[in-house]
Amino acid sequence: MKIIFFLSLGFCLAIPWSKGSTFLVTSSTDTGPNTLRQAILNADATVGRDTIEISAMLDTILLSSHTDTLHRNHLWFDDTLVLFGNGIVLTTQDTGRFFQNEAYAWMFDVIFLGGTSSLSGNGGAFWANRSITFTHCIFIQNSAPSRGGAVVASTNGAITPLDTSDIVFINCSFDSNHSGITGGALWVRLCKARLEGCSFLQNTSDGTAPNIYLDQGEITLAGLVAFDSAPQIVHGFRGTVILAEAFEVPLGTEFIIE
Q1: CA angle 23, 174, 231 (to 5 degrees)
Q2: Which of 25-34, 150-159, 220-229 has the lowest mean pLDDT?
Q3: How is residue 102 annotated by DSSP?
Q4: Would you kindly state where each structural domain of the chain is located, as residue ranges?
């Protein structure tokens, strides 16, 4: 096990690349004009770093339609994307996660509620295949039969790790997520993750790691990351845990890296 303590000089969120188009979501239905699904299709078809903003007048978007022969209802995007959720609740009627990204992304103020992965068994709400930053997002009651009840960050067997800017969570909350094997909230594989000012409450796993499982990667915990009574914050295999400034280790905390 390797645990490193250091003082951080601060973390800055930078959004590079030239700006593309902006798409406004005003419909809470699953498909059709002005929906989130259509906005993502439009953004993917537009060159540049596109922005999607969900109207603050919307409360909930229910993703319910299947989009291919695999009965997969989650949203894919492979062009650089910024999403402003304005507190929107994303939920799903059918079995499926919400997103999988194949390009750089930034997500602000989104609530992921009740996502369930049934195809791969991993990542109940989100599968991160490229660098992504979540800010003020909430992951609640998501589940996966295998790994990462809320989020999976993995290279999926690629030769190189997830891009060096990695996966970042800033002031996010993981509450009551569940996995069947490991990583009740988060599973990080062969990449780097940073959690700053996040909270983990009542996440569970039938196997190991009710909160975070680290598989040959690196996790930085910073800015008073809060955990509930579950002592095992990180369980993993051949990984590194970095405890940055203002991170407090509660009495009885366990970091288990085999």
Answers
A1: 160
A2: 150-159
A3: S
A4: 2-8+92-257
